[in-house]
Amino acid sequence: MSDHYERVKIELQQMKEVENEAAADGEQLSPASVSSIPAEVSFTARRDLSRSSVNGRSRSKSRSKADGHERQVNDKELPDPTAQKSNSSQGQSRVSNEPNLHIKGTARLLKGKTAANGHVETCVRQTDGKCEHHGKEDGSKAAKKRRAVTVDTSKAKTSLEALKMSIRQLKWKEFPIGRRTACDIYWHGVSFHDNENIVSGQVNKFPGMIEMLRKINLSRAVRTMQELFPEEYNFYPRSWILPEEYQLFSTQIRLLKDNDSTLKPTYIVKPDSGSQGDGIYLIRDPADLRVISGAQIKQAVVQDYIQKPLLIDKLKFDIRLYVLVRSLEPLEIYIAKEGLSRFCTEPYQEPSQKNLSHVFMHLTNYSLNVHSGNFVHSDSCSTGSKRTFSSILYRLASKGVDIKKVWSDIIALVIKTVIALVPELKVYYQADIPPGKPGPTCFQILGFDILLMKNLKPILLEVNANPSMRIEHEHEVSPGVFEYVPSPVDEEVKVGVIRDTLRLMDPAQRKQHATSNTGGGSPEEAIVVETGSDEKEGMADSLPSLCLKQVFPKYTKQFHYLRVVERIAAIFLRFLGVKGTMRLGPTSFRTFIRNCKLSNSSFSMASVDILYIDITRRWAGMLPDSREAGMCLQAFIEAFFYLAARRFKALPLREQVVLLLEVCEGALEGQSHSEKPRTHRSHTHPNPASSQTSAATTFSSPALTRRRQRPLQLSAKANTEN
Questions:
Q1: Would you give the end-to-end CA distance of the chain in angstroms?
Q2: Residue 371, class by beta-carbon neighbours within 10 Å (0-12 exposed, 13-18 middle, 19+ buried)?
Q3: What's the pTM?
Q4: Among 133, 137, 526, 575, fewest CB within 10 Å belongs to which?
């Protein structure tokens, strides 16, 4: 027994390193919780280790308590080892028939073991009726590994109720008013900067995501991809950015009507930073654009309006899908298997001058239609003004629609959109967390709003950086008096999304999960999220399978060739001279030209300076709110396109850009061999395979034109509403 006591003393000393954490948690183990253990219990071994490790830390909250506890152990009468052996022998046959490892014994034995060394000593194998236990080292490691994940919800705001429910289901620890010591996960309600003092852990927002998903920036990012890949990105509507492209918009609409007087196109106007349908309206003529103070046009995006959407029960609807961007490097994207379908509340008619102002007919925003007298709150997932997306798919399938093809097109739309956003997101990330600076890792749930055309083609309406995660709605019980009523449809979809996002971000599971669910495949194939045995043990047994399915890197082979702009961004990041900056100075731009060997007798360094000044000045006028001087990423991309067209004439733009990328990457790679490269945390790397794939493809793209002159003409018109 003396050896056992010595082992107990050493165990308690090792656990002192987590005493501060236990004290911060404020946990206490009551005598009732110990005495309530039944005479015979059967839990999985890993789950017992997790619970008992928490109890062990709770019992040694301070130095005085730990010392008193150790004295209590030394004075306490331990269970009779003969009885222990007998109990183990009696339970041997039951243990051998169980698929998982179980603990058998009496309440006295469990209580004594826990009090002695701070965790349940789990039987790991049985030989001749005798139990062999983990030693002090293995037990200590297991206790630390399986400690409960901590979540700071002090900034969660509107997603708080669904988040609390998810944390309870996972049996994790919530800190609703924050915590003095670091948490594993920080859940912010608005942006990455909700809490500026995080230096570790994981945050559910990316720096710059709000900025990138404003209407204008999203349109610019997708437009860049449309210039390179017009066919692949024809799911986004033709767009004009106001006020800078007002004259262009007016001219194109006038020419369109002059060529065909019978055409009466309709356009939708969306404020740049608007949300929940605020400020959205329809027009048929540029003169109908609203102005501020009768002088200046608001910053907004004007887009083609889809006049023939798919209708259900004669009503227009859109789809809200939840997408998890788990990391930028490597890029990981998950799509929720279930989404929401949000219906208008007035039967749809094609737009005319009489019904342009009928928002309940044309706009699918929940925040607008909920105020309609025709809005129907339903407890059913297949009726009412808000339904599950699966109920729509079932209805379409009953009419013979190939819903597998619909899902395939939606998955492709999501992947392509995220690929368009990643380059600038990496620039934002490095600006907020420069190389060498401690900081958290990031993930984020995005809300994709998608409209199905009558021919079932999906059209991207917009992407929301902060999709609503509320699982209740307001109900007016009397005039002016409202109460919150649970929404079964919202709860079914949103709680699963948040819970399974947390499961994927569990620090103990990230390494195992990162290596699973990769490989080739086709979007038409059913995506099943499989977990290894370690991951299954680490998650609560009662939880359902993951509702999030991985689509990237699962489908890397199909979409990797699209990541051309990301390679340009990698070069841009390489030459940023100052940590934390997002703009390229003139000296850095000259260094880029020199190191990539792009100057010659016909393109001198003086010409380089003129190019830099011309493009930078123009983009400074388009970004009036910017406080930082220099060349932004979008301006650098324009300059790169210009250099590519100058160097490789008479080739399609995409081929020009790929060839120039190969020149630049080859020159920089040769330079890195001759001198030590400057370390950057750019979250990207050149991929020779992608350039080989792109170069081997037959390209067809319009000749290079100035990117500011006109938006790309798409064959399919598109409609956008929130």
A1: 70
A2: exposed
A3: 0.73
A4: 526
Nearest-angstrom CA–CA distance, 436 and 500: 31
Distance of CA 272 to the CA centre of its chain: 22
Separation CA 215–CA 280 (nearest Å): 12
Distance CA(430)–CA(443), nearest Å, equals 15
Residue 301 carries which DSSP code?
E
User: Measured between alpha carbons, how far is 160 from 153 in angstroms, rounded to an integer?
Assistant: 7
CB 503 within 8 A of CB 202: no
Please give the structure tokens belonging to residue 6: 């010595």
Overall size of the chain counted in residues: 722
What's the DSSP call for residue 3?
H
Amino acid symbol at 247 = Q
Q: Is 685 left (phi over 0), alpha (psi -120 to 50) or beta?
A: beta
Q: Can you tell me the distance from the alpha carbon of 386 to that of 363, in angstroms, rounded to the nearest whole number?
A: 14
Q: How many helices (H) and strands (E) does the chain have?
A: 27, 23
Which residues, including other chains, have CB under 8 Å from residue 330's CB and lie 6 or more apart? 553
